[in-house]
Amino acid sequence: MNAVRTLQRRMRTAGKLFGQFVSTCKSQGIAGGAKFAGGKVRALVKERAAGDRTPGAVISAKFDEANGVDTTGLISMSALSVDSPNFLYATVYKASDPDRFAEAMRALPIRHQDYAFVDLGSGKGLALLLASHFPFRKVVGVEFARELHQVAESNIRKYHAPARQCEDVSSVCGDAAEFEFPAGPLVIYFYHPFEEALMQRVAQRINAVYESNPRPIVVTYFQPVLRRLWADLPCLTPMLDAPSQPRGEHMVAGYSVFATPEALQAGGWQRNRVASSES
């Protein structure tokens, strides 16, 4: 029975990918279809090659065991239910490195209690649980794969660590490009969840949100493959580039931080433009 279900799931996935390939060819031509197919192949290769052997995955697994939650795994979006055409531009899900995440949040010269934390592409919700260790006004994740969102909701219900300082934690099943951001100051977090076409839309959305209501906004972008896109956004100033770090046989992702003028005025920011190996 399990073998039959696995085969059925793979057939549905293959049918979905073929349909998306045909749709992309119709809208973007053969070149666009080839680019889409190449991106999916690269994602699959990365998924099979990386497995769960990275240091972050090991730490996340220990975190899961200690807290009775499920945040680990390396999951291709092609295997999940996503009711959005932006599925085409999703990358592989992987959990944030807990130690590096904490480092990044501590590095922000902000009053955390003034800010809402928003994770776009929040997956199983590990970053939401880790963000609750800081006294944010609220913590919310946005995930368009229903299966991952449901796991995140379960994790949030189960998580009662003594380190938790924020109780207003939630996951929303929706499209990051259409998300209605909370009022007030924001820390917006990414672990490179999108390819360029969707990331560009999300960046423009954030810029529009800022222009309609200027306020402190801090963007923290892990594995900043598309750093230039955020550096070029009119409302943001690059403030920090933390490079990837070796840990054993692997590299732990670096991150970049950007801030609006209001965030810079409110905090004691010092610009640290360290060259990132990710950019």
Structural overview:
This protein is an alpha/beta fold. It has eight helices and eleven strands. Strands 5-4-3-6-7-11-8 form a seven-stranded mixed beta sheet. Strands 1-2 form a two-stranded antiparallel sheet. The protein is globular. The N and C termini lie far apart (46 Å). The N terminus and C terminus are likely disordered.
What labels would you give this structure?
279 residues; alpha/beta; seven-stranded mixed β-sheet; two-stranded antiparallel ribbon; 11 strands
Tell me the number of strands: 11
Estimated share of beta-strand residues: 15-25%
Distance between the termini: 46 Å
- Unreliable parts: 1-10, 44-52, 273-279
Query: Helix coverage percent of residues?
Result: 40-55%
Main sheet strand line-up:
5-4-3-6-7-11-8
Gyration radius, in Å = 19 Å
Largest sheet: 7 strands, mixed
Give the count of helical stretches.
Answer: 8
Structural class: alpha/beta
Average pLDDT score = 82
Bulk shape: globular
How would you concisely characterize the structure shown here?
This protein is of the alpha/beta class. Helix content is 43%, strand content 18%.
Give me the secondary-structure topology.
Blueprint: H1 2-50, H2 55-67, E1 74-75, E2 93-94, H3 98-107, E3 116-120, H4 126-131, E4 138-143, H5 146-158, E5 169-173, E6 186-191, H6 196-212, E7 217-222, H7 227-231, E8 237-242, E9 245-247, E10 250-252, E11 255-259, H8 261-266
Parallel strand pairs: 3-4, 3-6, 4-5, 6-7
Antiparallel strand pairs: 1-2, 7-11, 8-11, 9-10
